[in-house]
């Protein structure tokens, strides 16, 4: 029994560590009473196995839950099928540096490799300044194309850009 218990205990500890290691930074700290804004990612399916995602992935150097992670989790075990899940989160209404990412996402790694080989997989990522206003809603948007890939945040009501555009390096 002792030999069986040790591998089982080790496997349990590895699983717990893996799950807690994936925990994301929470942008709104406990007991926060200040002003907040809301930011949603965006995306669209190109077909049943490939999608475009535009997401806020990091706030002031801290990784947060985003649509890339949510989509990857929702698509796990689905073969080549991708299940797009768009994330929304509340953030403090204060100046910050945010990392934005726009990229294709696929249901299977082999599909990503094939898309890259064919020159049809595009991505862009970078850090910009963002100063959200209290009680406003924002959306991460962008374009993915061979000639022009970009990602930025816009005001959801006016569709006006509120951050600089991150452009793909050519």
Describe this structure in words.
Helices cover 23% and strands 36% of the residues. With 170 residues, the chain is an alpha+beta fold. The protein has one domain (34-167). The chain has a 5-stranded mixed sheet with strand order 5-1-8-9-10, with no helix packed on it. A hairpin with a 2-residue loop joins β3 and β4. The longest helix has 20 residues, at 2-21. It starts with a helix and ends with a strand.
> What general outline do the C-alpha atoms trace?
globular
Radius of gyration: 19 Å
What count of structural domains? Answer: 1
Pick out the low-confidence regions: 8-21
**Percent helix:** 10-25%
> How large a portion of the residues is in β-strands, by DSSP E?
35-45%
- Secondary structure tally: strands: 10
Number of helices: 3
Q: Strand order within the widest sheet? A: 5-1-8-9-10
The structure class reads: alpha+beta
- As an assembly, this protein is single chain
Roughly how many Å apart are the termini? 60 Å
State the major sheet.
5 strands, mixed
On the 0 to 100 scale, the average pLDDT is 88
The helix-strand sequence is HEEEEHEEHEEEE
């Amino acid at each position: 029994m002792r030999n069986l218990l040790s591998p089982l205990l080790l496997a349990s500890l590895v699983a717990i560590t893996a799950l807690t290691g994936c925990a994301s930074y929470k942008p709104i700290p406990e007991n926060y009473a200040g002003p907040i804004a809301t930011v949603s990612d965006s995306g669209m399916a190109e077909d049943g196995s490939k999608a475009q995602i535009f997401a806020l992935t990091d706030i002031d150097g801290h990784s947060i839950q985003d649509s890339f992670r949510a989509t990857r989790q929702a698509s796990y075990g689905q073969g080549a099928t991708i299940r797009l899940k768009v994330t929304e989160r509340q953030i403090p209404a204060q100046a910050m540096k945010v990392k934005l990412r726009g990229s294709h996402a696929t249901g299977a790694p082999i599909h990503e490799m094939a898309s890259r080989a064919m020159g049809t997989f595009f991505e862009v990522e970078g850090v910009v300044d963002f100063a959200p206003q209290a009680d406003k809603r924002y959306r991460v948007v962008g374009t993915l194309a061979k000639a022009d890939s970009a990602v930025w945040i816009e005001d959801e009501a006016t569709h006006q850009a509120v951050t600089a555009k991150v452009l793909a390096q050519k």
